[in-house]
């Protein structure tokens, strides 16, 4: 096993027997090195800045690892724990336990450096919108939680002070704290007694404004997704309703709203029809049309130069890689059955993974170059997780020097061997790019098949030519019989 390159990135890989840490690309000997041997666990998650790693070893044992050395630095015994999360900088551990009564303060905030519990409160249920209960900005300067009809703020340096100030928002059902910086908080209030639902943005701080800096109201709203940009200047709001009253969609109605904290824009993002991928500026003006195709996923390169447009889930896995700066497509490929996908922190590589329990077969990892050419592939008998260790993109150089030929590179493909790295074989790096096929609903495909069977035609160009020849042949035979009949009657 080759020595780990201290300047390389790291990849967490978890299977049934636990997780291990690989060194990331570029691979010195054609395959990754093992930086941390397999550790038995049920789950493992990095902090947002990648400084700490939380490892659930059982339903009561939680271990914290320092990612600079990947050594265990703290272990917590928390009985009946249902969920655990690290604060963005890895300063605090937050746990959620089963609770029978409101007197049981089942949410506990632990300071990792000392192992002490610094805050407790009760939370009845845990959902995607309510966990983690206490939210931190990325720099941990701001901390807050949602309570009945209000958002409570804490002093992140001293939780013993309790709630230091409150923002009252009657009926608040979900909220999102801006991350970089934590200057604003967005709150969602559902429809009630004929009043429309709304999303409001408030400034944070003790002297925060009691009036929102931006607000957007809408009817027919069941749930929302709140997504802040980096810089805390804009908020994207996906508004969804269970029923589409226009009867245009069986799956309900969705609209995309955009609000800015300086109140310069507040309205709908125009969704073009037919469905296509489009880049917009901060005023919702189209900048670049990426065309139509079987796509449902966009992954933006952390360096801001490239993006990947992909179709995962129930789509065939087509991927198109674009150079946004030069507004051109770099390449296309396919990663079938991908469950997760993400750019590397340095912006040079794109990793997809097929994982269980979503898919029980063909589990594996693929790493592509920024232009879509395959760099590395490894299959597993069973794979639960594969993700990059978070790093600041500023740590790495610019990508201008990356735009060069990669034809000489080879792909390293290994057969299923658990999490070992033993066998391998080489194959061409640049597989033939497949042009994405337009999506066709099942009834349309069936209709085409029936038409082909009845009339001798097909959807391919070659079969269309054969059908044309057959038609011409039949017409000639028909004309010949008509001529013979005319000659006989005379």
TrEMBL record:
Residues 216-271, 273-386 form the Translation initiation factor beta propellor-like domain. Keywords: Initiation factor, Protein biosynthesis, Repeat, Translation regulation, WD repeat. InterPro entries: TIF2A, TIF_beta_prop-like, WD40/YVTN_repeat-like_dom_sf, WD40_repeat_dom_sf. It comes from the Eukaryota. Residues 468-480 have a biased composition (Basic residues). One of its GO terms (cellular component) is cytosolic small ribosomal subunit. GO terms for biological process: regulation of translation. Pfam families: eIF2A. Residues 416-425 have a biased composition (Polar residues). Residues 411-490 are annotated as: Disordered. GO terms for molecular function: mRNA binding; ribosome binding; translation initiation factor activity; tRNA binding. Belongs to the WD repeat EIF2A family. PANTHER family: EUKARYOTIC TRANSLATION INITIATION FACTOR 2A. This is Eukaryotic translation initiation factor 2A. It comes from Jatropha curcas.
């Amino acid at each position: 096993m080759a020595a780990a390159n201290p300047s390389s990135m790291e990849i967490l890989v978890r299977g049934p027997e636990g997780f291990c840490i690989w060194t990331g690309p570029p691979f010195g000997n054609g395959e990754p090195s093992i930086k941390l041997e397999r550790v038995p666990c049920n789950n493992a998650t990095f902090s947002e800045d990648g400084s700490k790693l939380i490892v659930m070893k059982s339903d009561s044992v939680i271990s914290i690892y320092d990612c600079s050395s990947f050594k265990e630095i703290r272990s917590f015994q928390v009985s009946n724990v249902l969920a655990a999360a690290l604060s963005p900088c890895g300063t605090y551990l937050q746990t959620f336990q089963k609770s029978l009564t409101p007197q049981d303060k089942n949410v506990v905030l632990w300071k990792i450096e000392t192992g002490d519990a610094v805050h407790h409160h009760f939370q009845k249920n845990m959902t995607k919108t309510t966990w983690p209960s206490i939210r931190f900005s990325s720099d941990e300067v701001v901390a807050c939680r949602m309570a009945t009809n209000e958002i409570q703020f804490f002093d992140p340096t001293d939780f013993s002070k309790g709630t230091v100030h409150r923002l009252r928002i009657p009926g608040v059902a979900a909220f999102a704290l801006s991350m970089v910086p934590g200057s604003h908080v967005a709150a969602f209030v559902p429809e009630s007694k004929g009043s429309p639902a709304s999303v409001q943005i408030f400034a944070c701080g003790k002297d925060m404004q009691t009036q929102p800096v931006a607000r957007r109201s809408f009817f027919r709203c069941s749930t929302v997704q709140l997504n802040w940009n980096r810089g805390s200047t804009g908020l994207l709001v996906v508004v969804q309703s269970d029923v589409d009253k226009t009867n245009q969609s069986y799956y309900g109605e969705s609209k995309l709203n955009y609000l800015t904290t300086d109140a310069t824009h507040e309205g709908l993002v125009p969704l073009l029809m037919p469905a296509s991928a489009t880049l917009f500026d901060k005023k919702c003006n189209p900048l670049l049309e990426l065309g139509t195709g079987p796509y449902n996923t966009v992954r933006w390169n952390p360096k801001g130069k490239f993006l990947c447009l992909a179709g995962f889930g129930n789509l065939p896995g087509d991927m198109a890689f674009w150079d946004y700066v030069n507004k051109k497509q770099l390449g296309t490929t396919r990663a079938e059955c991908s469950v997760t996908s993400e750019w590397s922190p340095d912006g040079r590589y794109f990793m997809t993974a097929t994982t269980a329990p979503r898919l029980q077969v063909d589990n594996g990892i693929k790493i592509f170059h920024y232009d879509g050419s395959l760099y590395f592939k490894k299959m597993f008998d069973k794979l639960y997780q594969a993700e990059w260790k978070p790093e600041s993109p500023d740590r790495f150089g610019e990508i201008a020097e990356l735009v060069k030929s990669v034809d000489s590179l080879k792909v390293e493909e290994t057969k299923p061997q658990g999490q070992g790295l033993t066998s391998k074989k080489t194959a061409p790096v640049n597989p033939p790019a497949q042009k994405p096929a337009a999506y066709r609903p099942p009834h349309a495909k069936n209709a085409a098949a029936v038409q082909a069977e009845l009339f001798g035609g097909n959807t391919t160009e070659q079969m269309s030519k054969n059908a044309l020849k057959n038609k011409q042949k039949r017409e000639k035979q028909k004309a010949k019989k008509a001529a013979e009949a005319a000659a006989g009657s005379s």
